[in-house]
Amino acid sequence: MLRRRLDPELHGSAGYTSVTRVAALGLIVGFFGLASHLAVQTWYGDRILPGVVVAGKNLGGLTLAQARSSIQKDVASYHLHLDVGGEKYELSAADVGATFDVETTLASAYASGRDSWLPPLHHEPLDLSYRLNRAQLNALATSVATKIGTPPVDAGVVVSGGALSTIPEKSGWSIDRAGLQRLIEDDVRTTGGAKLLLKPREQVADIQVAALAPTIDETKRLMAVPIVLTYADQTYTPTPSQIGQWIAFNKQPDGTGFKLVPQVNTAKLKNYVQSVANKIDISPVNQTVNIENGVSKVTQVGVDGLAIDQDPLTAAITDSVNKQTPLTLAVTAHPVAFRTTSTTLVTLDLGRYIEVNLSKQHLWVWQDHAVIYESPITSGATGAGLGTVTGLFSIYYKTTNTHLVGYQYGYNYDVPVKYWMPFYSGYGLHDASWRNGNFGGQDYYYGGSHGCVNLPDVTAEFVYNWATIGTPVWIHK
Questions:
Q1: Residues whose CB falls within 8 Å of the CB of residue 1, separated by 6 or more in sequence, listed in order
Q2: Do residues 169 and 154 make contact, with C-beta atoms less than 8 angstroms apart?
Q3: Does residue 12 carry a pLDDT above 60?
Q4: Is 86 exposed, middle or buried (0-12, 13-18, 19+ CB in 10 A)?
Q5: Which of 162, 216, 235, 398 has its CA 20 to 30 A from that of 272?
Q6: How far, in Å, CA of 413 to CA of 393, rounded?
Q7: 450 torsion bin: left (phi>0), alpha (psi -120 to 50), beta (else)
């Protein structure tokens, strides 16, 4: 009886001892864990904790200086190897707009695991810290997409010689620019090294050659529209082949996709209308009139012309073909008035005289109502207030190999001339070798003479030998 009462007591005492032992063991393990943590933290005070991986590289155990050097080496050697549709690119960080932040990356690596109470045996891998110029990255992606991408080409219909044929469609290719930017950023984040491959996406043409049967049938019906044009006793009937040359094919939505719709192209039709006009139109003959000394004389009589009204004709044909309605039309025409051109001539009723036109910077020698000699000249510098006088004068003196002196007229010059023929006060006809053959230009306005009429050497010699004292000199504008 006594033993049986004592057994439970003995049993309870053993359970208490077991709990105590477990608790003691936990304290011991915790103590050693804490001690290990403190020991590791102390040992790695200026080092990266074990198991710290940055951009795929284990930096555990490295001093801060060693880790910084390792990160700097990785970012300095960064290159992006990109293959887009067979087009290969080798790009630097600067090319993609990336700037790596070594110090921030190093700080993240050093802090990794230091807030844990357990010994740092494993950490989540870290990425590089960086800044990205989004505008530059977008420009790069756009440039690549533009170079690689090609738009699709729709199937088409061609009309040649009255026959219709089709041109097959071509698929295009496009680049997912957003996907390309994500791919590049992922590579920057881990300093890359791998070859990145991006395949272009196929873009199917909106219009397939297999769907062109309705377009071809519609075109044939347009080409078969009967058109008869009449003018007087002439008839013009365009053939189906000619009508086919007027047709253009317009891409239009049809609810589920797109279709080609044949319609008359007005610009093409105008070529045909012009060919009809060329057979009907009559060009006007312009009238010419010579006005000599105020007396008009018709040298060619003007005759009105004729031209068909092309715009209403073009509009009528366009409407007829597009609506597939037969057309019989009388072509209308309107008169085209001739123009009158006149030439004004002023001549002197003299047997011999010299004419100088200041506006044209030209001289004519008249004898028996005919020009026997002409030449460019340079007159006075009008813009400088030294213009040549106008009016009817006559040569009152002639001499050769003399000097023209300006001081007596208020000008500072003294130049030699071979031929001197004054016609009014200090104004005269003479050679001007200093012009080096440059006569007849409009530069006389500021670069002309002091009022005289400068002549080329050969002209001055001719005029001097031909003219006599008293020969009229007519100067006008």
A1: none
A2: yes
A3: no
A4: exposed
A5: 216
A6: 25
A7: alpha
What is the rounded distance in angstroms from the CA atom of residue 387 to the CA atom of residue 403? 21
Fold of 352-476: L,D-transpeptidase catalytic domain-like (2.40.440)
Q: Which residue has the tokens 């080329």?
A: 456
The model carries a pTM of 0.54
What fold is seen in the domain 212-341? Ubiquitin-like (UB roll) (3.10.20)
CATH number of 44-153+172-205: 3.10.20
pLDDT in tens, 386-419: 999 998 999 999 999 999 987 655 566 789 999 9
pLDDT tens per residue across span 179-198? 899 988 888 888 766 788 88
For 88-138, the pLDDT digits (tens) are 999 988 999 999 999 999 999 999 888 765 555 556 789 899 999 999 999
Q: Which of 49-63, 256-270, 397-411 has the lowest mean pLDDT?
A: 397-411
pLDDT, tens digit, 9 for 90 and up, residues 332-384: 999 999 999 887 767 787 899 999 999 999 999 999 989 999 999 999 999 98
Cβ(459)–Cβ(375) under 8 Å?
yes
Average confidence score pLDDT of the chain: 88
For the chain, what are the domain ranges?
A: 1-43, 44-153+172-205, 212-341, 352-476
